Amino acid sequence: METAELPEPQEPQDPEPASETSEQPATGNLVVPVEVHRPMTTTTSNKDPPTPKTFIPGLQPVQTTFSSTLRTYPTKKVKINLQKNQIKNPPSDAISAVEFGPNSTQFLLVSSWDSTVRLYDIHANSMRLKYNHDQPVLDVAFQDAVHAYSGGLGCTLKMYDINANAETIMGSHEKAIRKIEYCSSVNAILTGGWDAAVKLWDPRTPTCVGTYLQPDTVLALSVCGDKFVVGTAKRKVCIWDLRNMAGMFQRRESSLKYQTRCIKGFPNEQGYVLSSIEGRVAVEYLDTTPEAQKKKYAFKCHRIKENGIENIYPVNAISFHTTYNTFATGGSDGYVNIWDGFNKKRLCQFHKYNAGVAALSFSHDGSVLAIGVSFLDPAEITPVVHDEKEIYIRYVNDQETKPK
């Protein structure tokens, strides 16, 4: 696989072109727990190429060769008035997911570790409704403009009718529900759980119509046309075809060396983007022909160098601009980057937020980006760091999102 490095900008300088470097194996023994959130620290030399990097204890050795094929050009940080774009009445605990309504730039669904699901009208900057779970909520999804689904540590999948202001218990997993997706091609709800199962739900009944075992704990899930992609613990990637669920369509291993954090399918249904806890993103293709597989690549991102120390942060969230097939990533470093994955360019980087970026969602037309900002690990909160839990709305333009 082609792997390329995209340099992070060092304020106030613009990023420099990627150069050919190599990494030596890092030292340390580790067991990475499920859903690790804290950044990893490495030490580097100021010389080019860099000297071997040493990860903190608990991380497995990595050896990767980087090439200089990723094209870059100077980008500038986009500064915005955070207070002006801040949603009122945010959750009281960490934000787990944000999701725009279908065909809407107005209504935003938000789940949180405070065990609530909230619906916001971003035009009026007001909360329209709120309903509760018994335990923290890890994900939400819209079926249509008036039906929302949510689940989390309580293991129960809820359907909420926004017009009737009523909830229905659909069913449950044996362990926490980590991801929820609506599949328009079959008009069904998909859930992935820490019980290593993906379940398919019929919203008309409402009942579970199929349970599909995965190799390990489900950490990420995304629909990609008539297929869906599952990322599990131990870096497994499973691809299923909704037209034939008798067996798994493809089984792969993540091209990234560390735990999967997020997966999102291309709007054009050609492939998916996968991120890890170790500040990297991989662009993958579903077509298994050698010609298609030559196009896949990975790159570094969400890393900050300070005083010779490179802090490496998880890439927590990915969201696609459905018109341009560009995508945004959000990391625990507090930055949002927008990328042109097909041309291998970074288009822009937003100004740093006061906490990690936990969740992202583009509206259906790509004109608005919702940004959930909160620390996902209490260890990141110190006496000098504000424990922020906010939702920001960013109205984006073609200069920031359109391929050049």
UniProtKB/TrEMBL annotation:
Its main location: nucleus. Keywords: Cell cycle, Cell division, Centromere, Chromosome, Chromosome partition, Kinetochore, Meiosis, Mitosis, Nucleus, Repeat, WD repeat. SMART domains: WD40. WD repeats lie at residues 170-211, 315-340. One of its GO terms (cellular component) is nucleus. PROSITE patterns: WD_REPEATS_2, WD_REPEATS_REGION. It is found in: Chromosome, Centromere, Kinetochore; Nucleus. Pfam families: WD40. GO terms for biological process: cell division; chromosome segregation; meiotic cell cycle. Residues 1-59 are annotated as: Disordered. The keyword Ubl conjugation does not apply. It comes from the Eukaryota. Belongs to the WD repeat BUB3 family. This is Mitotic checkpoint protein BUB3.
